Amino acid sequence: MQKLLPSLLILIGSLLIASADISTPIIGVLTQEVYTGGLISRHFDNKTSYIAASYVKYLEGAGARVVPIWIGRNRSYYEDLMHKINGVLLPGGATWFNQSNGYADAGEHLIQLAIEQNDQGIFMPVWGTCLGMELLVYKLANGTEHRIDCQGKGIALPMEFKEDYNKSRLFASISDDVVTTMIKENVTYHWHQYCYTEKDFERDLLNETWRVISLNRDLNGKEFISTMEHKKYPFYGVQFHPEKPMYEFTKTSIPHTAAAVISGQFFADFFVSEARKSYQSFENATEQARTLIYNYKPEYTSILGSSYIQQYLFTNAEMEIPEIPDEGGDGDGGSSGPYIPIIETGGGSSTILPLFSVLLLTLLIVSIN
Ligand SMILES: *[C@@H]1O[C@H](CO)[C@@H](O)[C@H](O)[C@H]1NC(C)=O
Ligand SMILES: *[C@@H]1O[C@H](CO)[C@@H](O)[C@H](O)[C@H]1NC(C)=O
Ligand SMILES: *[C@@H]1O[C@H](CO)[C@@H](O)[C@H](O)[C@H]1NC(C)=O
Ligand SMILES: *[C@@H]1O[C@H](CO)[C@@H](O)[C@H](O)[C@H]1NC(C)=O
Ligand SMILES: *[C@@H]1O[C@H](CO)[C@@H](O)[C@H](O)[C@H]1NC(C)=O
Ligand SMILES: *[C@@H]1O[C@H](CO)[C@@H](O)[C@H](O)[C@H]1NC(C)=O
Ligand SMILES: *[C@@H]1O[C@H](CO)[C@@H](O)[C@H](O)[C@H]1NC(C)=O
Ligand SMILES: *[C@@H]1O[C@H](CO)[C@@H](O)[C@H](O)[C@H]1NC(C)=O
Q1: Which residue range forms the structural domain that includes residue 345?
Q2: 105 or 19: whose pLDDT is higher?
Q3: Is residue 281 in contact with ligand 6, taking CB distance under 6 Å?
């Protein structure tokens, strides 16, 4: 028994470290090109890409942390990052898929890499919201266009589940209460000019690889696919915006009822749980700290007329990965470069934790005095 105890402690310790790694997954959110001549470029100099802050809050509100994924990089950048993060969110927005070096090209790398990783047995979930869902389908169909025009701007709709919706992974463990709420109330918020139809999926056999889970009708009564998941890969798509009921307040048509918020939270919780199944991590705490979204500040853009309350805006210079210092921990590391927060990871925490304890102790002594 006495011999067993140390090894038991080591076992418990390593289990704790392992579970600590997956309980707070880090999800990459793809940036998107700023529209030239649009609101952002009129108000902010040199900002070339953005992330609507609602997507960041949406993931954070479910326990994840966020890393921005830059557009306009080469393959090796995406390849490297995809071995460090635990999932990818492709947000909605407004770009053409034929625009080069932007959202669509970066998304193509990410989707291809996610396919490769999943094929190799490395779990890598991808979530597409609105344009992100459209991109997922487009890229998995080898760049063939299946979208049609849709009148789906500014409508709140209930979920219209297909009969076998609970055979999906996405809804396998949803509670009956939440389903009832989703069916009865206008919980999903739509803002899209394109959509996919089930007929089209069947005609071109996209139904062989995608499971259509819910359908809705646009303002003209046209039926379109509103929720889907890939049959083989952990890829999910929603045509609506689950983040908006919780985090966007710029249009009166966005539902903010308790039902809409519970519903949006369901999707966030689901995807973050998927990301918890990934065991990848950054090489060390410094690299992770330098990469997280906390290095950037969102702007209050709705006050300027944007349909996003807040946006993270990036210049080309900011999209360069910040330089990694020799070793943090020695004072504040000078005045150049962003502040490095104290964080814990499986590997890097050992050097940082003692420093943290000393700091806490100092604070304690100071406050006692
Ligand atoms: C934008 O870029 C130009 C040219 O590089 C530079 O002169 C200017 O200071 C930049 N503006 C801001 C706000 O960074
Ligand atoms: C990719 O870009 C990085 C800089 O962002 C550069 O260091 C690297 O050499 C490039 N790789 C290739 C294969 O071009
Ligand atoms: C990209 O696609 C849009 C919409 O189909 C079209 O209007 C635009 O001309 C295209 N641009 C290029 C460079 O092909
Ligand atoms: C896309 O291309 C791949 C590889 O060539 C092929 O296996 C797949 O069936 C194609 N998918 C579609 C929807 O055309
Ligand atoms: C799915 O729903 C059907 C009909 O509501 C029900 O009979 C069935 O038990 C459910 N299956 C699962 C796996 O929950
Ligand atoms: C949902 O929206 C439709 C159309 O605006 C409306 O007729 C209906 O009453 C709403 N349902 C609920 C439960 O609020
Ligand atoms: C897909 O649609 C085609 C055409 O309707 C049908 O023959 C096939 O069985 C469907 N596949 C699945 C998996 O539902
Ligand atoms: C952390 O990882 C980065 C990127 O691989 C590396 O450049 C750096 O030297 C590492 N720092 C420490 C303290 O190990």
Answers
A1: 327-369
A2: 105
A3: no
Helix (H) or strand (E) holding 339: none
User: Do 129 and 163 have their domain in common?
Assistant: yes
Q: Are 207 and 184 in contact (CB under 8 A)?
A: no
Please check whether residue 47 lies inside any domain of the structure: yes
| Residue 195 annotated as catalytic | no
Q: What's the predicted TM-score (pTM) here?
A: 0.85
Q: Assess if residue 6 is contained within a domain.
A: no
What are the DSSP calls for 196-213, one per residue?
--HHHHHHTTGGGTEEEE
Q: Establish if 320 belongs to a structural domain.
A: no
How far, CA to CA in Å, does 322 sit from each of 178, 240, 288, 352? 43, 34, 11, 20
Residues 356, 234, single domain; the answer is no
The pLDDT of 95-123, averaged and rounded, is 96
Pocket test for ligand 6, best of 153, 186, 218 (most atoms within 8 A of CB): 186
32 CB-near residues (< 8 Å, 6+ apart): 49, 50, 51, 71, 91, 93, 95, 102, 103
**Which residue is closest in CA terms to ligand 3's atom 14?**
98
Same domain flag for 335 and 299: no
